[in-house]
Amino acid sequence: MKINQTPRINAVNPYQKQSDLQAGAASRKRKTDEVQISAEAQEMLSSSRVSSTDRSQLIDNLKQSVSSGTYHVESGKIAEKLLPFLKN
């Protein structure tokens, strides 16, 4: 039996699609990540910077009271705050 090379009509090249994708990917630019901060978040950030001196004074006072042994922890308040988390 003799098989002649018949002209291939609409022949499918399985590698053509993959090479087209690679060529297209090489020509595209890489996308970069972008972060947008809402106006509310910017306002909160600026307000926290303003009160940073007050916060640092509070932290210094807490450090002094802890180091001197005069800091008192109320166990009832801690239990009240932990209770909702423990119920879930």
TrEMBL record:
Keywords: Bacterial flagellum biogenesis, Cell projection, Cilium, Flagellum, Repressor, Transcription, Transcription regulation. One of its GO terms (biological process) is bacterial-type flagellum organization. Pfam families: FlgM. Residues 1-21 have a biased composition (Polar residues). Residues 1-36 are annotated as: Disordered. InterPro entries: Anti-sigma-28_factor_FlgM_sf, FlgM, FlgM_C. SUPFAM superfamilies: Anti-sigma factor FlgM (SSF101498). Residues 33-83 form the Anti-sigma-28 factor FlgM C-terminal domain. Belongs to the FlgM family. This is Negative regulator of flagellin synthesis. It comes from Paenibacillus albus.
